[in-house]
Each structure stands twice: as C-alpha cells, then as structure tokens.
Amino acid sequence: MKRIFFALVVATAIAGCSKSPDALSAARAKLFDSADADSKALWAAVMSSTKTNGYIQSMVALQSLRQKENLTPAQDKAVYDTLAAVNTQLRERAEKGDPAAKKVLEDMTQMQRR
Questions:
Q1: What is the pLDDT of residue 107?
Q2: CA–CA gap between residue 101 and residue 1 (Å, rounded)
Q3: Are 25 and 82 in contact (CB under 8 A)?
Q4: Greatest distance between any 2 Cα atoms in the chain
Q5: What are the pLDDT tens digits along the chain (114 aa)?
Q6: Residue 66 φ/ψ, nearest 5 degrees
Q7: Helix H segments across the chain?
Q8: Are the beta carbons of 21 and 85 closer than 8 angstroms?
Q9: Cβ proximity of 50 and 68 under 8 Å
Q10: Which pTM does this prediction carry?
Q11: How far apart are CA 107 and CA 82, in angstroms?
C-alpha cells in the first residue's frame, strides 16, 4: 500500500501543474456538491489543508478520494490535478529551503524504502 501511494505521488509529481493547489481546490469546490458525504468531507479537508500548506493531510485526503469508484470524471480530474499541484508545490518549496517541505519529502522517501 505504501509503495502504491508513493508511486502515485511520484507519478503526479512528474505530471506537474502550473496552478497552486489552493486555487485548484477552490475553483473546483462545486464539483463535490453532488458527491456522497464522505467525498465531500475529504474534499473539504483538501481545501482546508491546501490553504495551510498541510502537504501530508492534502495527500492523504486526495489519495483517499482517488480510491473512490463513485467519482465523476470531472471530480476524478480535480483530484488528480490537485494532487499534482500539491506535489509540485512541495518540491518547489523544498528546493527553496522550506524545512517542512524537506521533511515531508524525506518522510516520503523513507516510506518507499520500507
């Protein structure tokens, strides 16, 4: 499971995205108005954590949403694009010396090695 999670994170990081995670999640908030309660709650967690640079919380919620089979194609794309944006922002901040971003990347590397 951890390897699958890391593979998805790496794949989305490679894809990249030019918009910030916060902008993407806010712009697509209405996509989840018709979703089930659990999906709505997960998307709300994504929206909240992207505003505070909560990388781990964002990725966990986004990965949980990716596993749901009842998402519409538009919801699935919103999840994928936001996950890519979170990963891009995380890498950029780590490269600029952000200690929190560096720690998350280190933790992700450690998870892959297990």
A1: 87
A2: 22
A3: yes
A4: 40
A5: 444 444 444 444 444 445 677 666 666 778 898 899 999 999 999 999 988 888 889 989 999 999 999 999 999 999 999 999 999 999 999 999 999 899 988 988 888 777
A6: -60, -30
A7: 2-15, 21-27, 37-51, 55-66, 73-95, 99-113
A8: yes
A9: no
A10: 0.74
A11: 20
Q: Which residue is associated with the tokens 């950029």?
A: 92
Q: Which amino acid is at 93?
A: R
Q: Work out whether the CA dihedral 104, 106, 109, 111 comes out positive or negative.
A: negative
| Residue/partner pairs of 58-64 with CB below 8 Å, 24 or more apart | 58/21, 58/82, 58/83, 58/86, 59/9, 59/83, 59/86, 59/87, 62/86, 63/5, 63/8
